[in-house]
# Entry
Amino acid sequence: MKRIRLLGVLLAIVVFSAVRVPSSLAQSSDELKALRKEVESLKQGQEAIQKNIQIIKDILTGKQPPLENVSINTDGAPFLGEKNAKVVMVEFSDFQCPFCGRYNTQTYSQVMDEYVKTGKVKYVFRDFPLESIHPLALKAAEATRCAGEQGKFWEMHDRLFKNQQALDAKEMLGHATVLGLDVPKFQQCLEGGKYTAGVKKDQEEGQKLGVRGTPAFFFGFADPKDPSKMKAVSMLSGAQPMSAFKDALDKLLNPPKEEKPKEPGLDKASL
# Structure
């Protein structure tokens, strides 16, 4: 009888252990999954920070990607200047970017006066909102397009760059009022996200072209076979001084003449 009781106790211990072990393992497994999820979240956060740091570095250094067979679509994009100008300048910009604001308040008017208003250069604007660091930039870009429906794209463009501290949705209605727009129509356009996809399409094309920071500028010639495209020759990034734009544009407007090869013959000095 004692042996039977002892075997019963041992069996109970074994059964109890068999029941408890899987529960412990399940708990450890859940903790491991939670830990892995936390590590992955931290990794994604670190990657986002590194991406933002790289964007800022590119803006500060004016990093330029190599331009080889680069063609930029300008069809439907807002522009200033002579429609059929041979030389074209394309800007990718962000309305909340301080460097874009600096360019527009310090250099933009000089480019306009010297090259665009004189008919030498066609100036094209494309959107490139850096949403990760400028959360108001996307809607600001949409606002200019909604204003463009009423013929006030460039007026809204200029106003937003001069008032970069007033870019939230409520303040957009104030800008529309000042510009004399049909405010209900403007509001419906903006809140309905009519141009969200169009702005993001600009951004995607900019990324394919190597744009990492804003403002980014491409300089080149209108494609004679397809007027809706521009063959890019050079590129600038960041709030560069006027001298940098002058150098880039003058090289296109007045390319250096190739020296004619000398005709074979005797050099008079050697006679």
Summary: The domain at 70-253 is CATH 3.40.30.10 (Glutaredoxin). Confidence is low (pLDDT under 50) at residues 13-21, 266-271. The first helix runs from residue 2 to 61.
